[in-house]
Backbone:
């Protein structure tokens, strides 16, 4: 008989799917790594399990511990799955920009959810970064994974996702395009791909209002660049330790509107129901189409499921209110 011992054994080995209608006129073979096929429907299932297992090996997690993490939702889901199987409590600290579906999903998996304001500086006591750190210090037997600076995040994509993409493309990949959030996905995959094929171009996608692009181009961390934006799951107003800018060849900025519209187009033209950061990656890919050749093999990664954006991106009234349609 062929079965998994528990839900955690179903993480990874997600499919690579050819894009067709949405990329008409774009040269090359366009492929999407669909991380929504993970049990928690996102790439963050990989890092949730990895961060917990590494912490267990280092004796940082004790039986019955409470995990406290700042998350836009998906990492919380990954941690929640692992916490259920391994017997930990979970508190997810997020901001009020995230969709209600994400919050409800976390609660459905037994997590306690704390919502903080979005429009505050990272060092503000009310920011979700600060609140997560404070709670982890105040609660007895608590552990703070800190996905932003915890290098287990980057390592899991080096060990798993990068090798999967390499094998699925038979090493023929020429470009990898993905949104940058904590930086673990792009950096871990980039490290593996470039070790095996240094010519592979690594392209990060960043929403306007994030600090990444200017930092990448100038080395300057400019908080004046940080402005409110709607796109969820990518972009930051801090520079996480997981981002290895030396592995990135280019950062392409996209608008909230284009990210939202391409998210909807992926569903309608490809039958691929994915989230906001996937639409952003798609927008970045289309903006760069003149740089691709017919012989190129271009892989993008779609982080999560469209189910978490039903009341936002896939809601006509919400789209009209934001001026997106």
Residues:
């Amino acid at each position: 008989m062929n079965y998994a011992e528990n839900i955690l054994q179903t993480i990874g080995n997600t499919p690579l799917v050819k894009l067709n209608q949405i990329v008409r006129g774009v040269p090359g073979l366009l492929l999407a790594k669909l991380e929504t096929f993970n049990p928690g429907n996102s790439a963050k299932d990989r890092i949730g399990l990895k961060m917990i297992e590494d912490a267990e090996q280092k004796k940082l997690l004790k039986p019955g511990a409470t995990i406290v993490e700042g998350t836009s939702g998906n990492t919380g889901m990954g941690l929640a799955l692992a916490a259920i199987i391994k017997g930990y409590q979970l508190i997810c600290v997020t901001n009020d920009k995230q969709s209600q579906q994400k919050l409800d999903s976390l609660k459905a998996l037994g997590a306690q959810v704390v919502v903080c304001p979005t429009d505050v500086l990272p060092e503000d006591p009310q920011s979700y970064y600060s609140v997560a750190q404070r709670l982890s210090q105040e609660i007895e037997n608590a552990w703070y994974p800190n996905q932003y600076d915890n290098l287990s995040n980057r390592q899991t994509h080096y060990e798993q996702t990068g090798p999967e993409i390499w094998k699925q493309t038979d090493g023929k990949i020429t470009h990898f395009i993905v949104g940058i959030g904590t930086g673990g996905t792009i950096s871990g995959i980039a490290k593996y791909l470039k070790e095996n094929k240094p010519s592979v171009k690594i392209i990060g996608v960043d929403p306007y209002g994030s600090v990444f692009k200017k930092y990448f181009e100038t080395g300057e961390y400019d908080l004046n660049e940080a402005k409110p934006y709607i796109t969820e799951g990518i972009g930051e107003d801090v520079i996480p330790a997981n981002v290895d800018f030396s592995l990135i060849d280019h950062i392409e900025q996209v608008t909230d509107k284009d990210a939202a519209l391409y998210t909807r187009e992926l569903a309608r033209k490809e039958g691929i129901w994915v989230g906001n950061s996937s639409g952003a990656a798609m927008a970045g890919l289309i903006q760069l189409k003149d740089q691709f050749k017919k012989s190129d093999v271009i892989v993008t990664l779609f982080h999560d499921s469209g189910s978490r954006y039903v009341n936002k991106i896939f809601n006509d009234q919400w789209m009209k209110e934001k001026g997106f349609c």
